[in-house]
């Protein structure tokens, strides 16, 4: 699970072009949106594409996305349980 969390942090930094953020600055429990990492709705769409492309997980319900994208911890747990790739 720790490897998956690190992998997610690397991919989020790359996909969302967050060049000014280091891996160590993203905590596993930190909020990804709002006061945490400060991601927005466009970033959420990029995360949905990343989930599909890299892990074979298709998200269609926005409410589901809100739950999954709360933190690195919640993303990793969902991916571990549902990945097809």
From TrEMBL:
UniProt xrefs under InterPro entries: ACP-like_sf, PP-bd_ACP
Gene3D superfamilies registered for this protein in UniProt: ACP-like (1.10.1200.10)
Domain Carrier: 1-83
PROSITE patterns: CARRIER (PS50075)
Cross-referenced NCBIfam families: PRK09184.1
Record's protein name: Acyl carrier protein
Organism field: Myroides guanonis
